[in-house]
Amino acid sequence: MPFYLEIIICLSLIIGASFLFIGSYGLIRLPDIYMRLHSPTKASTLGITGVLVASMIFQSYEKGGFSVQELLITLFLLITAPIAANMIAKTALHHKIKPLKRTQNQDLIDSICEREEPKKADEKSV
């Protein structure tokens, strides 16, 4: 394997591992569910992307052609992580989990919890 590919793979792994460490530390350190949503979705997604890019480069060199599997896994994670975070946030709001006092924009959380469900199209308004 050429030395420049080893350097690129090592840098990608180091960057990915750094983001994964920061995401894991943030998940442990942040005290509130609303604050914790940022850490695993942003930092960990970037971390996994770095590791998968390194794997894609290595596998492409070993096979002699472009490796598509890692690219598909990366795209899947980049699409599903924000959706999962949105569902976690909606669940926390549905169960009326109160944020800590130092959480910013608490007035938005209160207004979201108090809003009514939209009326369905087949229901007649009285």
Characteristics of this structure?
0% strand, PhaG_MnhG_YufB, single chain, membrane, transmembrane, transmembrane helix, Na+/H+ antiporter subunit G
Give a description of the structure:
It contains 5 helices and no strands. With 126 residues, the chain is mainly α. It has one domain (3-114). Helix 1 runs antiparallel to helix 3 (38-63). The longest helix has 27 residues, at 3-29. The protein is elongated.
Unreliable sequence segments: none
Q: How would you sum up the major sheet?
A: none
* Form type: elongated
Order of helices and strands: HHHHH
- The first-to-last residue Cα distance is 74 Å
Supply Rg.
Answer: 21 Å
Number of strands: 0
Distinct helical segment count: 5
Fraction of residues in β-strands:
under 5%
- The helix/strand class is mainly alpha
- Whole-number count of domains: 1
State the share of residues found in helices, binned by percent. Answer: over 70%
What value does the average pLDDT take?
Answer: 85
